[in-house]
User: What shape does this take?
Amino acid sequence: MPWFVWLLTAAALGAAEFFTLTLFFGLLAGAALVAAVVAGFGIGLFGQLVALAAAAAAGLVIVRPIAVRHMAEQPLTREGSDALIGKRAEVMQEVTATRGLIKLSGEEWSARALDESLVIPVGALVDVMAIDGAKAVVYPCQLLP
Assistant: This one.
């Protein structure tokens, strides 16, 4: 019953993948499953090892780089307060280094100036540089003439 040994090996490698999340052990577990199927068809140990090596090589050389690249990509859309960064807003109350109020995406937000020496007057347009807790960190717009 060599197929059973391969299934146990696949389960152990799957458990290792669960704890490491490297995608290395998971691909080896898949290769062990391939070897279990080959063993189930009655092919000898050499054929099982060849199947294991071929499946592991295919997974590690072809699948893993593609999966790692996809996991490293940033999401295409920003959500929540991150989506407000880079937006333009209008000053409702004078904005200083510590306090102020802006109208951002139809809502009123407390704000502070990015540059502590700036005082941004009411009615000025500002760009949101960051969100710090519940405050927007803003800087006056540099409008092109």
The first helix runs from residue 2 to 20.
